[in-house]
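Quick one, tokens below. Sequence please?
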């Protein structure tokens, strides 16, 4: 049973597959770059304007996430999110162990 929970740590909560180019939000939830980009695009169209800026809500915890720049595109915003190198490294290491 523990193996199932551990496997979920290495899966994107949007596509439910192993992460591809994992990016994390300020709340530390991680998503594939290709998954978070359309989420940001769709969220921007329905999001609230607060303090003169647009914010989105994390798809997992609903924390308000503010853009790094005003008038930024969803693609730029997704690219500017930090890479989760640690998660990618662990997932890659586990994948190598499963192959061997």
């Amino acid at each position: 049973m523990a193996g199932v929970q551990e496997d979920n740590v290495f899966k994107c909560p949007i596509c439910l597959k192993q992460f591809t180019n994992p990016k994390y939000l300020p709340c530390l939830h991680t998503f594939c770059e290709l998954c978070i980009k359309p989420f940001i695009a769709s969220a921007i169209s329905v999001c609230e304007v607060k303090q003169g800026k647009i914010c989105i809500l994390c798809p997992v915890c609903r924390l308000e996430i503010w853009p790094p720049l005003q008038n930024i595109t969803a693609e730029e915003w997704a690219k500017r999110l930090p890479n989760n190198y640690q998660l990618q490294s662990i997932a890659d290491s586990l994948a190598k162990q499963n192959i061997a």
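The radius of gyration is 15 Å. Helices lie at 2-9, 33-46, 74-80, 85-99.
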